[in-house]
Design a protein that fits this description.
Strand content: under 5%
Largest sheet: none
Order of helices and strands: HHHHHHHHHHHHHHHHHHHHHHHHHHHH
Structural class: mainly alpha
Helix content: 55-70%
Number of strands: 0
Number of helices: 28
C-alpha cells in the first residue's frame, strides 16, 4: 500500500498537463453520433470507457492509428495493480479496426526488452490472449522474450502458467530463480505460487516444485526464496497480532517497523490513556518518519491534544507527513478544520484531495455543490481520484436526492479509476439512475466487473 500510494503521487503525467485534462473533459460526448477528434478518443481510452468501442462500431477510426497503437503498447489503467491491464479491452477494440494484424505485430515486436513495468505486463497479456486463441507465434515470442525483473516478473509469469500449466510455471520459475541469483534487489514473490496452488492444487504444486528443484538449482533457489518470504510474512503477522493489544510504551520501540494499516488498527483499539501518550509522542517526534508513524494512529480516532500540533504538520510533504496529518484532522469538528479545507483547494496544496473529507466532518448546507465543483474543476488525476472517493462518502453521510444522480454521473464521466467507476455504476443502478445509454456502454467497459453488473439488459447498439 505504501508503494502504491507513492506511485499515485506522480501518476498525473500519464494523461498530460492539468490544463489539457480539464479541456479534454469538457469535450466528452453524450452520444455516439457526434464525430470525435483524436483528443476526445484518447481520453476515452485513458478512462477505459465502453464508449470508445461503441464509437468504433459506428465510425472509421483508422485516422487514430498512432493513438490506438500507443494504447496497445502502454497500459493506460490508473492503478493497474487493482484494475489490471487494458489488453483485453484493446483486443476487443482491434476487432473493429481493419488491419488489426499491424497492431498484433507491433506488440509482439515490442516484447523483447519490454522492461519491468505495467506496459510490459500488458504486452505479455496481449500476446497470451492471442496465443490462447491458437496462434503459436505469440507463444513462441513470449517464451523467447521473457526476462523477468524484480517488480513485475511474477505478474508476467502468471501468463505462462495460464497458457501451459505446470510446464509454463516451471519455465517462469527457472527464469525468476536466475534473477534471484543475479540481483541484490528485492524480488516480489508469492503471487505466482498463490495462483498455481489455486489452478493446479496445493499438493501438486508443492510436489512439482520439490521434484524440479532437486534437478534444477535455479528452481530450487526460487522455491527456497519463496518459502522464506512466506515464513517472514507469517512471522510479521504473528508479531503484529501479539502487539495489537500492547501499550504505547511497549509499542514505541517498534513503531517504525509497523505498517501504517497496523498502526491505524492499533489506534482504533487503544485506550484513551495510550492515545494520550501517543499524542505526546507525536509532539516529541524528532523526524518525519516518527511523525508519520504517530499520525497514522489517529487516522480513525480523535486526537486528544491541541489540534494546532496537527495543523502545523499539514504542509510537510516529506514522507507524506502532511497527508497523515490531514487524515487525523478529518476526525475533528472545528471551524479551523473547515477553513483548512478551503485553503488547501485555493492554494492548490499537494494534499488538497483530502479537502472533501474535511468538509464531511464540518458540513454546512451548500457543501454538496462546493464539493462537486472542486471535483469537476480539478485537473490533476490523483487529486481528482481522491476527490471522487470522498464525494460518495459525503452524500452517504448527508443524503441529498436532488443532487446525488448528477454527482454520480459526473463521477462516471470523469473519474480516472475503473475500479472506483464500478462502485459508481452500482450506485446508479441501485438508484434507478443508470440510463440505457450508459448501461449499453458499460457492457463494453475496460473493467469486466462493470460489464457483469449490467448483464441482463439487452440494449441495441447504435448502427453506423
Amino acid at each position: 500500500m505504501d508503494a502504491r500510494a507513492a506511485k499515485w503521487e506522480s501518476r498525473s503525467a500519464c494523461a498530460g498537463t492539468g490544463g489539457v485534462i480539464r479541456w479534454l473533459y469538457s469535450f466528452v460526448p453524450t452520444g455516439y453520433d457526434a464525430v470525435m477528434d483524436e483528443d476526445q478518443f484518447r481520453l476515452l481510452l485513458r478512462l477505459g470507457h465502453g464508449r470508445a468501442i461503441l464509437y468504433a462500431r459506428g465510425h472509421d477510426i483508422q485516422g487514430f492509428r498512432n493513438l490506438i497503437l500507443d494504447a496497445c503498447l502502454h497500459c493506460y489503467g490508473y492503478d493497474p495493480q487493482i484494475e489490471g491491464t487494458r489488453a483485453s479491452y484493446m483486443l476487443e477494440l482491434l476487432d473493429l479496426v481493419p488491419g488489426k494484424e499491424f497492431y498484433y505485430e507491433a506488440v509482439l515486436n515490442a516484447l523483447p526488452g519490454s522492461g519491468d513495468d505495467w506496459d510490459a505486463a500488458q504486452r505479455f497479456h496481449f500476446a497470451a490472449s492471442l496465443a490462447l486463441d491458437g496462434n503459436e507465434r505469440p507463444k513462441q515470442v513470449m517464451y523467447e522474450s521473457y526476462n523477468p525483473g524484480p517488480k513485475m516478473g511474477e505478474a508476467i509469469a502468471i501468463e505462462f502458467l495460464q497458457m501451459d500449466g505446470l510446464k509454463g510455471l516451471l519455465f517462469a520459475i527457472e527464469k525468476i530463480g536466475a534473477l534471484l541469483t543475479a540481483t541484490t534487489e528485492k524480488v516480489d514473490l508469492g503471487w505466482l505460487l498463490s495462483m498455481a496452488r489455486e489452478s493446479l492444487g496445493e499438493q501438486e504444486t508443492r510436489e512439482a516444485l520439490r521434484k524440479a528443484g532437486a534437478e534444477n538449482p535455479r528452481i530450487e533457489v526460487y522455491r527456497l526464496a519463496e518459502e522464506a518470504s512466506r515464513n517472514r510474512s507469517d512471522e510479521r503477522l504473528s508479531k503484529s497480532g501479539e502487539m495489537i493489544n500492547a501499550t504505547y510504551e511497549q509499542l514505541k520501540p517498534k513503531l517504525l517497523e509497523m505498517s501504517f494499516t497496523w498502526l491505524t488498527s492499533w489506534g482504533e483499539r487503544a485506550s484513551d490513556a495510550d492515545l494520550d501518550w501517543a499524542a505526546r509522542g507525536l509532539a516529541a517526534a524528532q523526524n518525519p518518519k516518527e511523525q508519520y508513524a504517530h499520525l497514522r494512529i489517529f487516522a480513525r480516532r480523535l486526537f486528544p491534544l491541541d489540534i494546532q500540533l496537527l495543523l502545523n504538520l499539514v504542509d510537510v510533504e516529506q514522507d507524506r507527513v502532511g497527508l497523515a496529518a490531514l487524515k487525523a484532522l478529518a476526525q475533528i469538528t472545528r471551524p479551523e478544520v473547515r477553513q483548512l479545507a478551503f485553503r488547501l483547494v485555493e492554494m492548490r496544496a499537494k494534499w488538497r484531495g483530502q479537502a472533501i473529507e474535511l468538509l464531511a466532518r464540518n458540513f454546512r448546507l451548500g457543501d454538496h455543490a462546493i464539493a462537486l465543483r472542486w471535483f469537476e474543476g480539478e485537473a490533476d488525476l490523483d487529486t481528482k481520484h481522491s476527490f471522487g472517493m470522498y464525494l460518495t462518502d459525503l452524500w452517504e453521510r448527508y443524503p441529498d436526492e436532488e443532487t446525488e444522480a448528477p454527482m454520480l454521473h459526473a463521477l462516471y464521466e470523469q473519474g480516472p479509476c475503473s475500479f472506483c467507476r464500478e462502485k459508481t455504476v452500482r450506485q446508479l443502478i441501485e438508484r434507478g439512475a443508470l440510463t440505457e445509454e450508459l448501461r449499453l456502454e458499460c457492457s463494453y467497459d475496460a473493467n469486466g466487473d462493470i460489464r457483469d453488473l449490467v448483464k441482463g439488459s439487452s440494449p441495441t447498439a447504435p448502427q453506423g
